[in-house]
Amino acid sequence: MKMKKISCGNKEIILGERTLVMGILNVTPDSFSDGGKYNNLDSAMKQAEKLILDGADIIDVGGESTRPGHIQISSEEEISRVVPIIEKISKNLDTVISIDTYKYDVAEAAIKAGANIINDIWGLQYDNGEMAELVKKSNLPIIAMHNQNDEIYSKDIMLSLREFFEKTFKIADKYGIDRDKIILDPGLGFGKNVEQNIEILSRLNELRDMGPILLGASKKRFIGKLLNDLPFDERVEGTVATTVIGIEKGVDIVRVHNVLENKRACLVADGIYRKRG
């Protein structure tokens, strides 16, 4: 697999050499898996240190829950949650930081605090170009996730994803964003039912020609369904299975809550599926 270096401000990531692991750090009171665990600075910092010790290449900081039925918060509230921990991680730990937000003003504050990547669950399509302007100005990579408000697809689901990402590319082109800075996320669990998530996971390789892929399946509802309705904290092994499937399909990054177990799975799967030399 061809290697590709992507500059992330004062850091860089290398895609294609091995699967990168993004560790999730939710500094929220209401995220579906870990809400309330890390919403003070000390506990969040300890968790960031643990994620890195366990093998995370990127720490993804989120300040607003995006679980089904979540309550949208103001940009000011979100900034107050994410900026202190991003500043602390940036000053004290040698890692790449991504900011999980679809609001350009939150992303801007996070970048000033030390974030290296923007992780946008609406793939540059939430606002009227403000996020795209910020991506261009900052010259940082963006993770563009597929999203929609319902589970209705009038055509083949992979074609729908491709059309969404083509729209993202058009926005990027309009604002002069280098396409090499865009990482695609199929958005499992967002505007998709259990069967649709399973189909996308089984056909992820069909997106490979569009760019690098991030897989964010960690502990999601479709995994629970496949495990006979196991609760969130009992979906680790199911998540590991999706990581291995994703690597076989050609993903570049996996976004997970449990870094250690998934990192080990990556080492084995990379040794089997990634071409050497």
Description:
Catalyzes the condensation of para-aminobenzoate (pABA) with 6-hydroxymethyl-7,8-dihydropterin diphosphate (DHPt-PP) to form 7,8-dihydropteroate (H2Pte), the immediate precursor of folate derivatives. This is Dihydropteroate synthase. The chain is of the alpha/beta class and 277 residues long. The chain has one domain (4-273): Alpha-Beta Barrel (TIM Barrel). 40% of the residues lie in helices and 16% in strands. It has nine helices and ten strands. It has helices at 41-53, 75-92, 104-113, 130-138, 157-174, 194-202, 221-226, 236-249, 259-273, and strands spanning 4-8, 11-15, 20-26, 58-62, 96-100, 117-120, 142-145, 182-185, 214-215, 253-256. The strands form two sheets. It has an eight-stranded parallel β-sheet. Helix 2 packs parallel to helix 3 (104-113) and helix 8 (236-249) runs parallel beside helix 9. The chain is globular and about 40 Å long. It starts with a strand and ends with a helix. The relative contact order is 0.13.
